[in-house]
Amino acid sequence: MDERSVSIRKASRLTRTLLVARPAAGYSVVQRLLHWGVVLLCLTQIPTSWAIARTHMTHAFMQPAPFDLFLHRVHAWGGWLILAFAVVRIGLRYLHGVPPLPAASSQITRWGTAVSHALLYGLLFALPITGTGAMYVNSAAFAPIHRVLTWSLLAVAVVHAVAALWHHLIRRDEVLRRMITGVRTAK
Asked: In this predicted structure, what is the pLDDT of residue 10?
């Protein structure tokens, strides 16, 4: 067995270990809807988070604005929904599987994919947990961690999006199209 085959097997084993994924011809409609649902929910977290600081800046003579309280609840429920979607997505990775990277993908691409997906899922789990901790347990303890994780998710998501565009515009492979349109990969 040549060195490249060994490297591919190691990366594949790492991906399976981290994300319990089996190969599939393409993403199911539910997988794609959940992926884009998480993206949209994450985007709604940005403007709703601004209201959280305002709801905590209350004084004896000043109560938070009702709209800020509403946005705070939207932020919390959005986070919990993101967590639920992430749990279902992990389950679908196991039950349905995910399409493999193109055969010509390099070792670094395979490792980067495994690590970035593990980070994305880890952050999608950790953010709602730390946000809930900040909201209901101890804001001083959990809020700083939640903020660091928020910036970490932003960084990893940007790398993920740039990598998808790189696959689409430079490599001209089906990686992005299969998440958008459901293109199937020949097995």
From this structure: 64
